[in-house]
Specification:
- The chain is of the alpha+beta class and about 475 residues long.
- The chain is about 35% helix and about 20% strand.
- The strands form three sheets. Strands 1, 2, 3, 4, 5 and 6 form a six-stranded mixed beta sheet that branches.
- This is Glutamine synthetase.
- Pfam families: Gln-synt_C.
Length: about 475
């Protein structure tokens, strides 16, 4: 007879006993259910939930969920590949108890990210969280590197009373305006309180550029924890907004015109406790490997956009001269380049120096996005890649000859172009493995086909509430 003492391989040693203790503790705090969360290939957060009393069972044997979600599109249609899709098979969702968090804005609930494990106890090759963990381990094993990461979160706040499917901004003050902060003061204060209660160290939260748009920034963590926290913070933003009669969209473009919502990624590579993006003898204090890591990312950006900007709506946002970083260019504190070197404030550069990668939005699966960015950086380190001449100002102003000298070219202007670049990039495909790489290609092609013939306004509407 199988008991909780004989779990299927997939959980962590000691998880059953720990989950049993946590279950009692959570019940005593009024927590009735656990949200088991992951992000699919299309970037949509998917969940299953269990009663708190079943947490130990989930830790022992996982919770079933079909692998078909690896090939789900944002509108819940699915595509198939040679190895994924269709009604067959099952996976188990194993909660990471180290990340279990009581949800301050959803009374009665706790939350945990999951690893997706096959029924025989092996890692599911389509699990983005496993892929990111594997890539982080590879950085340490091959190059002695650790990586710290943070994802910015931008969202648009709309009125829940708006006509079905439409977006009506909840505040109409100017960009970065004090009026917006005042108008949504209570909601923002509750958001900060919820994040603090959940152990999320918020650096900033402020009005952004577009109508009804806000941004929240957090400190850097190891990449898996950073991706987990991005998912948790979005869950929290939604819940707090709902309690205030508001609705939020993380879509790259809630409308066809104007500045969209980004999800810029900040990365820094370290070795033996030293930040490789400062204190070196290369340009702006980069070390040789710090430069190579940046050059690896810069060189693979056309293919990376299939992962970091995975929605047809992403390409409504990725437009020149809107600080979206749509050219293969880099620069010191240059917000129009795709890779921005952030040196940090004098006196704190060892802690703060990092790379900001701008052509990223929150339609991306954060585990896949971080994993592929790190894989590209590692390829640069392995090959000793060098950065081209840096760009200042807006790259769109470069004449053709100067742009060619610096390797500055336009990133894909459509999802179809991005997928074509991704299919031709062996480094990224090999890093992901055949199952995940095929899922990425198939899902992106399915998304592109689904909006063929639609004008920009209809594309924006199709993805407005699909994040």
């Amino acid at each position: 007879m199988t008991t909780l003492a004989d779990p299927v391989p997939g959980g962590r040693p000691g998880d059953v006993e720990r989950a049993t203790a946590l279950s009692g503790e959570l019940s005593g705090r009024g927590v009735h259910g656990i949200v088991l969360a992951y992000v699919d290939t299309a970037g949509v957060g998917r969940v299953k939930t269990v009663p708190t009393a079943k947490l130990a069972s989930a830790a022992a044997w996982g919770v079933g969920m079909s692998p078909v979600f690896d090939t789900f599109l944002a509108d819940d249609r699915s595509v198939t590949t040679d190895v994924l899709g269709g009604p067959d098979g099952d996976l188990r969702l194993y909660p990471d108890l180290d990340r279990l968090t009581v949800l301050a804005a959803q009374p009665g609930w706790a939350w945990a990210p999951v690893d997706r494990i096959a029924q025989d106890g092996t890692a599911h090759p389509g699990c983005g969280r496993t892929f990111l963990r594997r890539t982080v381990a590879r950085a340490a094993d091959l190059h002695g590197l650790t990586v710290r990461a943070a994802l910015e979160i931008e969202w648009s706040v709309g009125l829940d009373t708006a006509p079905e499917g439409e977006f009506v901004p909840a505040t109409t003050g100017p960009a970065y305006g004090a009026a917006r902060q005042v108008e949504l003061s209570d909601c923002l204060a509750d958001l900060l309180a919820a994040c603090a209660a959940q152990g999320v160290d918020v650096d900033q939260v402020h009005p952004e550029y577009a109508a009804g748009q806000f941004e929240l920034s957090v400190g850097a963590l190891d990449p898996v924890a950073a991706a987990d926290r991005s998912v948790l913070v979005r869950q929290t933003i939604r819940a707090v907004a709902r309690r205030h009669g508001l609705r939020v969209s993380f879509s790259p473009a809630v409308s066809a015109r104007g500045v969209g919502n980004g999800g810029h990624v900040h990365l820094s590579a370290w070795r033996d406790g030293r930040n490789l993006h400062t204190g070196g003898d290369r340009r702006h204090g980069l070390t040789a490997d710090g430069e190579a890591f940046a050059a690896g990312i810069l060189g693979r950006l056309p293919a990376l956009t299939a992962v970091t900007a995975p929605s047809p709506a992403s390409y409504l946002r990725l437009k020149p001269s809107q600080w979206a970083g749509v050219f293969t260019a880099w620069g010191l504190e240059t917000r129009e380049t795709a890779v921005r070197l952030v040196p940090g404030t004098a006196g704190h550069r060892e802690e703060q120096a990092n790379l900001e990668v701008k052509p990223v939005d929150l339609a991306a699966n954060p585990y896949l996005a971080l994993g592929c960015l790190i894989a590209a950086g590692l390829d640069g380190v392995g090959s000793g890649a060098r950065l081209p001449e840096e760009t200042t100002g807006d790259p769109v102003l470069l004449d053709a000859a100067r742009a060619a000298e610096r390797g500055v070219r336009r990133l894909p202007a459509s999802l179809d172009e991005a997928v074509a670049a991704f299919r031709g990039d062996e480094v990224l495909r090999n890093a992901l493995g055949p199952v995940l790489a095929d899922a990425v290609s198939a899902v992106r092609e399915g998304e592109a086909a689904g909006v063929a013939g639609l004008d920009d306004e209809r594309v924006a509407a199709a993805y407005r509430w699909r994040d």
